[in-house]
Amino acid sequence: MRRRDPRPPLLGRLILRITRLGTRRAEIAADLEEQLLHRRRTAGVRRAGWRYVRDAASLLRPAPRLVGRRQTSLTSVLSGIRRDAAFALRLGRRRPGVVTLTVVGLGLAIGVSTAVFSLVNAAALRSVGVTNPESVFSIGRLNARGQIRSTWSPAEWRTLRERSATTIVEALVPESVSLGQLSTPGGGESVSLHVVSGGYLHTFGARPVLGRLLVDADDEPGSAPVAVISEGFWRRRLAGAPEVLGQTVDLEGTPATIVGIVDRAFSGPSWGTPGVWVPFPVGARIRPYLAELPYARLTVRVRPGVERAAAAAELSALAAALESTDSAARPQARVQLGPMDTRSGEIRTIGLAVLGAVVLVLLLATANMANLFLASAAERHREVAVRLALGSGRWRVAAQLVTEGLTFSAVAAAIGLIVALWLGPLFAELLGVPLGVDVRFDARVYIFLAGATLFVGGLAGIAPVRYSLRRDLASPMKGWTPAASSGSPRTRAALVAIQASTSTLLLIMTAILARSVVNASVVDLGFDPERILMVRAVPPSGTCDDACSMTYARLAIERLTGLPEVEAVGVTTSPPMVGALYPLIVQQGGGQELFARVPASADYSSAMSLRLTQGRFYTDAEARSGDRVAVVSEALARIVWPAGAALGQQLDHLSDNLAGFRVIGVASDAANSLVPRLRRVGVYVPIDDRATATFMVRTRSDAADVVPRAHAAVSAIRPGVRVTTEAMIDVVAAERAPVQAIAGVASTVAFVALGLAVIGLYGITAFVVGQRTREIGVRMALGAGGRNVAGLFARQSLFPVLVGLVTGVGLALAAGHVLSGPILGVSATDPASYAAAVAVLAGAAAAAIVSPARRAARVDPAAVLRQL
Amino acid sequence: MKGDHLGEFEELALLAVRAVGDGAYAVPVQRYVEQATNRTVTMGAVYAALDRLEAKGLVRSAMGAPTAERGGKAKRLFSVTPEGMRTLKYLRRVRDRIWRAIEEGH
Predict the structure, then answer these.
(1) Could you tell me the pLDDT band of residue A437, with boundaries at 50, 70 and 90?
(2) B61-70: pLDDT as tens digits
(3) Which of A330, A321, A335, A466 minimizes the C-alpha distance to A398?
(4) CA atoms within 13 A on the CB side of A330
(5) Which residue in the set B25, B27, B42 is minimally distant from A58, CB to CB?
(6) Of chain A's two ends, which shows fewer C-beta atoms within 10 Å, N or C?
(7) What is the pLDDT of residues A227-253, one digit of tens each?
(8) A581 reaches B (C-beta below 8 A)
């Protein structure tokens, strides 16, 4: 059997291939082959093959020493990285403009993302903050009518706590107080306050950062007034100063000594993280009704080894005993153990949506960096080819490219960290993150930052690797610019398309939000919020029957009307923005218009100064006798009776609730809610005065000035009734605030995105022009005009943008429902928003392309031809 | 590493480079050591030894011009440096004196 140029044994070849021989591979392979041939002649084919395998295997072990003088110790790897990084920075100096823009853009993107992430992290991702949450339950009792009551009186709580063997029962009343000026900064600011039982903090696993927690002894009447504050409140309002221990905090005139600061990991089983916890004796001094009335919410920790059902049975028996000592015995009363309130799913959803946007921005930034590197790879193909030809390993060159990516992203991360540290607290204030929540960056935020940096830098650095490491080394050395190398133009076009679609999506979302902000601030409320006061008086449930409620309401109206500053007092169960919503949907053409049905007293019209365009408002007598008369709004009348003959019409066809009602007047339009969208009042129907309603007080001057007097007047009627008094202007502002805040954050994100997209487009077009200089020169030498060339580039660069725009619009349509929460009076498919976003992006893209395209038109054909 | 001292195999490889003379590269060095000592020598050991010798400055190497005999593939040619020669002679002198002491007794 004649074998020509017999090949070494397979095993030997395999071993040789996986052995790291570096630059000496060719030489060593030749040596081994020579030995093989020689041994075949002297010792036979089998023996020669066997020796070949042994030789190959012998190269495996001493490999590191074989690769020239290179060492692979940690220090040498590090110094290699340092050299690559320094090289990257030198390259940056060569293209300062584009590199600076890209790196700063990336820094902004990382900064905004990290800031947003820190808030999402603080608000939605941190754990519930209770130790062993599976044994914690809230308890409520079913009354005779099958309703669950979740509030208990202090006496009931004490009895349950003393008698329950299976559980530890703790009590909580969530309140909100304004801070006095006494010795704490931030006076006048409102802070959420939890009035809790002494053991509450300890039972649910709070730990003090400084000082101590509340203890059972603090529950004793006559104990020294103490308060414990949250770490978030301490850091955000008290500058984290340890001296606050022992200082006095003024809680609406009640002083309490700060004795401890609770670790931020603790949020409590429900009701969010407050700024301040106080024991019941202090709480009762701030809010006297807390001493007696059933406002406490009870949360239990089931003792280890006790079944939930057993605990529920025991508590039911105890509760039944409580009830039977009451005047109104309800033997069937039964206790339910409910799951404790965890963070609402809604916050989590919003948080995840925001994180989605943040990831998009990071992708944009990555695409930009990748662009930059593709561009520089094309310019540096010669350098890379020379390195490879001189024996530099492909891995070495690839490692260098990735290191460059990481170097730039590390610089960007430094910028990003500064931006994030500045933006984070700003966003927190803007979005009204509760004061109790500590928004400082924790380890997770830094991990996010590091992860984002590695992701962006690594991905961007890898992008040009395939392109750079082409096998063909000869062409670049001869000065040939690689014409469309495989995959690369497609990669770039895809990058542009991704950028364009991402920024289109973000811009559309922002445009929609911005429009809703504008709507929220310019929408005609139909009443003057500066001169309206809302007073609500809620007697504890079960302590005031209908008759009592009616008497109370009449007294309240009397007292309020008696104030010299007050013009009129109306009553409604559906005050604007905050009251009960009675929806009234009117079909209009193919769509439907949303209205509200507002039950209101006869004086409501004068309190809100509604204008009657037709007919009249109903009278007090009509309201009390329960006449089925109604007043409709102009907007509703326009839709239902376009001819204008609203008076005397029956309302039966609008809603079952309106059966038998007859229109006796048409009133000017008024808003009933702004968020999620503007909803106007459609119809007013009479109610009688009752205490569960809200008193709308029209004042002669600025309503805010009347708040204290109105509050005092109503509070004096009956002790124990919770009275809240708010100026309408504040209510409206609070209604608008979330939309404005979200829009503010969203536009920051969107403008960073837009900036990134423009930088990216500019970079890519400039790159393509640079790469095709030869082609342009030839075209122009053959007679193409500057305009033709510029036009060609503009068209070619804009095509992927167009693709991106279309994709972005599609994505926005698909994602529209995410926004439906915060949107205000703007459809998620609002054409104006879409048009504006597309126009802005297309304009920005065109602007980004102009300068490189003009540069293409200025290429000197003679200079190019000389190089050929 | 054995510092500046030569290991036994390194000494053999260094001697082989000198013995092969001009045109010494890994293949003839391996054959020389294998035949002289009558033991199996792997190529890996030869490369490692030559590298160590070069690192110690006892041999130097250069890529030789391609020759027709193995398909034009280049080989790395080694030669012993003056320092290498000095080391070899020193080792030999030390051994000779020890042997003399053994043979002459006490």
Answers:
(1) low
(2) 988 877 766 7
(3) A466
(4) 15
(5) B42
(6) N
(7) 998 887 887 777 778 888 888 887 777
(8) no
**Which residues neighbour A90 within 8 Å (Cβ) at sequence distance 6 or greater?**
none
Could A66 and B47 be called an inter-chain contact, meaning their C-beta atoms sit closer than 8 Å? yes
DSSP SS3 for A544: coil
Q: How far is B14 from chain A (nearest CA, A)?
A: 17
Candidates A19, A28, A34: best to mutate against B (most CBs of B within 10 A) is A34
Per-residue HEC secondary structure of B8-63 comes to HHHHHHHHHHHHHCCCECHHHHHHHHHHHHCCCCCHHHHHHHHHHHHHCCCEEEEE
Candidate from B27, B47, B74 with C-beta closest to A35 = B27
CA nearest B53 in A: which residue? A65
- Tell if the CB–CB gap between B48 and A65 is shorter than 8 Å: yes
Residue burial A227-256, b: 16+ Cβ < 10 Å; e: rest: bbbbbbbbbbbbeeeeebbeebbbbeebeb
Residue-level pLDDT at A369: 79
A33 to chain B: which residues are within 8 Å by CB? 70, 73
Among the residue ranges A68-82, A489-503, B44-58, the one predicted with the least confidence is A68-82
ipTM of predicted assembly, 2 dp = 0.84
Nearest C-alpha of chain A: how many angstroms from B70?
Answer: 7
Interface membership of A594 toward B (CB under 8 Å): no
Q: What is the pLDDT of residue A182?
A: 41
Q: How far apart are CA A467 and CA A374, in angstroms?
A: 8
Q: Mark yes or no for CB contact B55/A69 under 8 Å.
A: yes
User: Is the omega angle on the peptide bond into residue A676 within 30 degrees of 0, that is, cis?
Assistant: yes
Distance, CA of A669 to CA of A683 (rounded, Å): 10
- Rounded distance, CA A826 to CA A837, Å? 15
Give the lowest-confidence range in A514-528, A569-583, A769-783, A818-832: A818-832
Nearest to B47 among A29, A59, A69 (CB): A59
Report CA A693 to chain centroid distance, whole Å: 35
